[in-house]
Specification:
Arc Repressor Mutant, subunit A; D-Maltodextrin-Binding Protein, domain 2; alpha/beta; three-stranded antiparallel beta sheet; 3 domains; single chain; five-stranded mixed beta sheet; elongated
Length: 294
């Protein structure tokens, strides 16, 4: 039995959840996939898969084998890519985790360029505003903004963006324009629950911190955008999150004489695993995108 092929087959079975789907992706018959997994279990003398109502699920031993086999395949692919040279396009599957709104506005619309450069590459995008377990989810690279909560994370800063207090012209016409951070106490504030409710401003070396509150608190950036565009108040946000609206004047900045700390965009990689060429090149692609936006 070809060990590399057996590992590749098993990894594909786990990721697709069935023998038939794995067979379609591998371009072989289902009996060949079933036989390969059975031979693998016989050689290892352990059960790797169990059948459930949702398909095939790895056992504890199967999950451990899957994670190590997937890493081994990636490292083998890295070695092959290095031997062939940088002119060869990427291949296989790239799993990306990123915040929903940021991806929708800035990354996914440009993704055809990346895919065109690498016609043998497939991309899985996991869209979630929360930080997920990269290893458990099989993620190659995660795009995250702000401070990183995990000090052990392998990360590279790829962009820095401006943060602003923004609102719609309609809301400001109704509620007035704040000229000093203290004026925010008299305004409706839409709170993004993943950020602190104390906003810190600086001007001419002086610092002012304001504790804000509001009747609406949202847990996702899409909800924040919807609330602001519905004239429900003002908020503090990265300019990235409202780039189209800022450009056409649908929202405007206030308190522009005051500075807010910038926000960083990070490429985060799974701890304990070698960074793949796919992840490294995708990070460079996004870095170039955001530099062009800036």
């Amino acid at each position: 039995m070809d060990r590399y092929q057996a590992m590749t087959t098993f990894v594909r079975v786990v990721e697709t959840g069935s023998f038939s789907a794995a067979a379609r992706q591998l371009g072989v018959g289902q009996p060949a996939v079933s036989k390969t997994v059975a031979q693998l279990e016989a050689r290892l003398q352990v059960s790797l898969l169990i059948r459930t109502t949702h398909g095939l699920t790895p056992t504890e031993a199967g999950q451990n084998f899957y994670e190590r086999a997937r890493n081994a395949i990636q490292e083998a692919d890295e070695a092959e890519l290095a031997a062939k040279g940088a002119g060869i396009g990427l291949s296989g599957r790239l799993r990306v985790s990123a915040a929903t709104t940021f991806s929708r506005l800035h990354v996914i619309p440009k993704l055809p360029e990346f895919l065109a450069a690498h016609p043998q590459l497939d991309v899985d995008f996991l869209l979630d505003d929360r930080m997920i377990d990269l290893v458990a989810e099989g993620v190659d690279i995660s795009l995250r903004m702000g401070a990183l909560s995990d000090s052990t994370a392998v990360a590279r800063k790829i962009a820095t963006g401006r943060r602003s207090v923004i609102a719609t012209p309609a809301y400001l016409a109704r509620a007035g324009i704040p000229w000093h951070p203290a004026d925010l106490a008299n305004h409706d504030t839409v709170i993004y629950s993943q950020l602190p409710s104390v906003w810190s401003f600086t001007r001419d070396g002086a610092a002012v911190s304001v504790s804000v509150s509001g009747r609406l608190r949202v847990s996702a950036a899409e909800g924040l955008r919807a609330a602001i565009l519905a004239d429900m108040g003002l908020t503090i946000t990265s300019d990235w999150m409202f780039a189209p609206e800022l450009e056409r004047g649908a929202v405007v900045r206030v308190l522009e004489g005051w500075s807010l700390s910038p926000i960083d965009l990070w490429a985060v990689f799974p701890a304990g695993r070698m960074m793949t060429a796919k992840a490294r090149q995708f990070a460079g692609f996004v870095e170039d995108l955001m530099n062009s936006v800036a």
